[in-house]
Amino acid sequence: MKNKFTVTISDVHGSRHFLLHQLIKKFLLYFTLFVALSILIGSFVILFLMKEVSTLEAKKESAVAERNELILQNEELQAKISEKAQEYENIRDKISNVEELIGLRVNEEESLDSRLEEIDVTVMEQKTFFDNIPSGDVMAYSDVSSHFGWRENPILKRRIFHAGIDLRAPIGTPILAPADGVVKIIQYNQNSGYGNVVSLSHNYGFESYYAHLQNKIVVKEGQFVKKGALIAYSGNSGMSTGPHLHYEIKFIGRILDPETFLKWRGSNFAEIFKKEKRVTWESLIKLINTQYPLPKQPS
């Protein structure tokens, strides 16, 4: 066995002899198997990783799409928030205008809820006044032909006190109740100074009188009427120089200037309390305030 190496391995079972070229063959076989197994395992790993990469790429694309959608939704939400904020400011401005219109103090630090509640109460108070006390126009008229107070009577030709206001209007112009009330007097007499007359009795001691009416019955004595209800038609009866309505207002028998009540509106609600001193407004205001107490102000 020239040029060959023999390897002898001895143990308890005996001795075994291996030629060196056999070891080399086995080594090459095992190495080849190892390489093949490594390649196979590597292929599986690569395929697994490629699948994972594909999955991650799909998730990435989905995440990007969701992100873009969220960005779009956020932009839309921001636009809506800006729109609502502008609407909120517009509401605050309108509330401030209403507060100024009805005579409330403007307090921007209060919440809108409390301010709206106060407006609601104040509006209800004003409605109570306007529904029960003569206020606003009673008819469509072209102008005032004679005001309240001392004047030269155009028929008697002497200076006498004019207890009402004369509103010039065509015969047959509808006359409407200036407040809730009950018909107190109906007098149709062409020969009296006032001619045909209707009077209403209102709440809180107020009365209203309408003279020189057309001889056309619309209501009956004792009939209850609502504010704005038709009660008569203007005419030219009695001592009259032309078609008009003579309009009077009284408080517990005291003669008042009707023009102040004709011009009474929500925009000038408090002015009448200063102008018309013959009415005990203070006690009436307290009475109505007990029906609609204002909310407590924050300390």
Task: Please describe what this structure looks like.
With 299 residues, this protein is an alpha+beta fold. Among the domains are: 6-67; 138-255, Glucose Permease (Domain IIA). Helix content is 41%, strand content 23%. It has 5 helices and 14 strands. Strands 3, 6, 8, 9, 10, 11, 13 and 14 form an 8-stranded antiparallel β-sheet that branches. The chain has a two-stranded antiparallel sheet with strand order 1-2. A hairpin with an 8-residue loop joins strand 8 (181-187) and strand 9 (196-202). The protein is rod-shaped and about 165 Å long. Residues 295-299 have low confidence and may be disordered.
Would you summarize the structure shown here?
The protein has 299 residues and is of the alpha+beta class. Helices cover 41% and strands 23% of the residues.
Strand content: 15-25%
| N- to C-terminal distance | 119 Å
Radius of gyration, rounded?
50 Å
CATH architecture of the domain at 138-255: Distorted Sandwich
Give the strand tally.
14
Count of individual helical segments: 5
Question: The biggest beta sheet, please?
Answer: 8 strands, antiparallel
Helix content: 40-55%
Q: What would the CATH topology of the domain at 138-255 be?
A: Glucose Permease (Domain IIA)
Identify the CATH homologous superfamily of the domain at 138-255. Answer: Glucose Permease (Domain IIA)
Low-confidence stretches: 295-299
Determine the oligomeric state from the structure: single chain
Structural class: alpha+beta
Mean pLDDT: 83
